[in-house]
Amino acid sequence: MSSYQGSTAGAARRVGPETLVGDLMSDYRATIAVFIRHKMMCIGCPVARIHDVEEACREHGIPLERFLGELDAAIAGAA
Description:
79 residues; mainly alpha; 46% helix; 0% strand; disordered N terminus
């Protein structure tokens, strides 16, 4: 996992733009709900294992920083 230093409150992020979607959902099951909430059907998609979060956000028209924050919140809530 990435320790991407995001812009939110100066805290180290668990997820970065380069984090692979498939790895993320496998390592942090709580993030699946975030993808579903944004109608991103990455679950079961064969491209998820090579698609990173930044590419997925770009493809679906979702602001990257906001999405990364939601992913981090989901992970923190599951911990």
